[in-house]
């Protein structure tokens, strides 16, 4: 398919890619590079802010005004950079890259600020124990680990509620001090609050900040070269698939829809378009998954000597959408489990914490689709929220044991859903 398409393009135009797709990929690249650099540089402000929060003994403490100030900055930051591609009138390809990168950096920034904010509260509690009469003797709060299981988070929430009234100063000092030290024991708060540490964290292929990460001994430069080469190869295949099998179908269907008035004809055109897009969008999804989770994250893991290379599990064997959401994108799953589910679980029930997590995830997906297509339709949001009742049915006693059937139904809904959502966003 690839060779045939390239040969046809060379015969027609003299180039392996058509001019319109090449122009789409290369126009305003200097604006994209400068904007991406400015976006990254603007996040550095949180490092001196965290240093101020750490030293504050008054209203700028994290639990007082520190958290609201950072949350406000985070919201304004997101509004600015999400709207930036619209202001500069970028192509959809540039907008896809920039919007996804903005959301990645947003999650990194949130994790860095909230974890260090928690550590500042912990340090202040430890210092306050020098005068136990006026200090809180509530149990030390352990920040949720990215790899913690939901049941562990539930147990921690119940333990926190049960132990709040116990007075054990010696053990409390030990627990608070351990919370301020990395599991590997080499870094302690607040010595991590430096520009070097923050830049290293931004480069690491993770969305959850830790005081210290396990590292490999050295960078495998040959492996890094292969992964970099594979990134460009996958991008070439993605471009070819889009220009030959996706863009023409959507363009033709959009023209046909403008000339009809009947709902029946509209439905037939949409059905025909979806059927033509089934295979191309499945190929596109698999290539996007491969280039991000195998090659880009793998390349950054080599650059930073990041030891944890477990970026995905065997999602292709999923029997329901909840299992898929846990396994296909582990960095985002760990972020949501730690900073959404884990953060809300001490205050709400397990079911409500799960609902909040799905709402945040669905909002993020809808934001991405809205920025790419420049339309806010809510198709993706509704589709993701419908996963909850579907999962409840799949985990019922009648259906749960039929693993092969559930896996087949998962793949049917995956293949059909990708093409259907894309056609709806672009054409309707």
Instruction: Give the distance, in angstroms, between the N- and C-terminal Cα atoms.
Output: 30 Å
Q: Give me the Rg, rounded.
A: 24 Å
Approximate helicity band:
over 70%
Structural class category: mainly alpha
Global mean pLDDT = 86
- Stretches with pLDDT under 50, minimum 5 residues: 160-166
The share of residues in extended strands comes to under 5%
DSSP summary, beta strand count: 0
Inertia-based shape: globular
What is the helix tally? 18
| Largest sheet features | none
Word description of this protein:
- By secondary structure, this protein is mostly helical.
- Helix content is 73%, strand content 0%.
- It has 18 helices and no strands.
- The longest helix is centred in the middle third of the chain and has 42 residues, at 263-304.
- Mean pLDDT is 86; it is low at 160-166.
Task: Give the SSE layout.
Elements: H1 2-13, H2 19-26, H3 29-42, H4 46-55, H5 62-88, H6 92-128, H7 150-163, H8 169-179, H9 195-203, H10 221-258, H11 263-304, H12 321-327, H13 330-344, H14 350-373, H15 379-385, H16 387-394, H17 397-400, H18 403-427
Helix pairs in contact: 3-5, 3-6, 4-6, 5-6, 6-8, 6-14, 10-11, 11-18, 13-14, 14-15
Q: How would you concisely characterize the structure shown here?
A:
73% of the residues lie in helices and 0% in strands. With 428 residues, the protein is an all-alpha fold. The chain is globular, with a radius of gyration of 24 Å.
